[in-house]
Structure formats: C-alpha cells, structure tokens
Amino acid sequence: xxxxxxxxxxxxxxxxxxxxxxxxxxxxxxxxxxxxxxxxxxxxxxxxxxxxxxxxxxxxxxxxxxxxxxxxxxxxxxxxxxxxxxxxxxxxxxxxxxxxxxxxxxxxxxxxxxxxxxxxxx
Length: 122
Description:
- 18% of the residues lie in helices and 44% in strands.
- It is an alpha/beta fold.
- It has one domain (4-118): 2,3-Dihydroxybiphenyl 1,2-Dioxygenase, domain 1 (Roll).
- Strand 5 and strand 6 form a beta hairpin.
- It is globular.
C-alpha cells in the first residue's frame, strides 16, 4: 500500500529569508545556504530539507499558512488515487522534475501538504 516513508522537508514563510537564514546559521549552527535552505543527509536514501520561502509565496497555498510539510512517499500516483477515493482534497496539479514527482493535498485544517516521490537515486 502506498504510504509516507519519511519527512522530506519542512518549509517556513519568512519576511526576510536571507536574514532568517543568517539567524539559523549564527544562533543554532544550521548550515543554511545564502538563499535559505539546507538538506540534512541521514543516510544514502533519506534526506530532509529545511527551507525558507518569501512571505508572499503562493507555493504554500493560503497566505495564513506559515509552514508546509513535505512527506516522502513510495508511490505518489497510488497514494493520490487512494486519497481521492477517500474524499481527501487533492490538488489537481502534480509536478515531475529532476528531483522526482510532487503532489499536494489539503488537510482538514486547510494546510497544504506536499507529497514527494523522490527520483531514483535520491
């Protein structure tokens, strides 16, 4: 059965991503890039990205949503099909990229959640 296999990322809105990335670097030792992202490599197949987005990003959906979770999944298409059958709000767009396949659902509180099936080797 298609399912979540880990946390692929945690994304935050930031009024000033560059300044906030500097704060995380300076005060918590998080090795943020200048554009506000870091990927932690837990094992050869498991990574988690922490990234900052501009406060006005539309990537998260509603402007009031301050954070978005990205869950790593083992079969995006099967999971989205099952969620639709269970009347979960599944957003119509999906994305295929060099990083893998992405889809989005909305939880009962109105939070957009990103689902990511990594490309082979990621």
